[in-house]
Amino acid sequence: MPTAARIHWTQTRRLTAALLLVWFLTSFVLTYFARELRFAVLGWPVSFYMAAQGSLLVYLLIVLVYAQRQNARDRACAAALAAAAAPEASTGATPA
Prior knowledge:
This protein is 79% helix and 4% strand. By secondary structure, it is mostly helical. It has one domain (3-85). It has a two-stranded antiparallel sheet. Strand 1 (40-41) and strand 2 form a beta hairpin. Helix 1 (3-33) runs antiparallel to helix 2 (47-91). The mean pLDDT is 83.
C-alpha cells in the first residue's frame, strides 16, 4: 500500500476513534450524571433536558466534523496518489 494511502487510513481510524469517544461520553457519561446535575429554571428540572437536547447537538457536530475533515483528507490523499502516479505514467514504470 502506498504511503499516502497508509497515512490516510491511519488518520481516518484516529478521527473515527476520537469521534466515537465523544459519542460515548455524550451518550452514556453525560446522561448518567444528569441526575446529579440538579438545577432548575422556574421550578422545572433542566438537567435531563440539557443532556437530551445537548446530546443531539453534539451528534450533529460529530457528523459535521467527520464530513469536513474526511473530505479534506480524501482530497489530499487523492492528490498525493495522483502526484505519485504521474512520474510512473510518464516513464512507463509499473508500481511495485
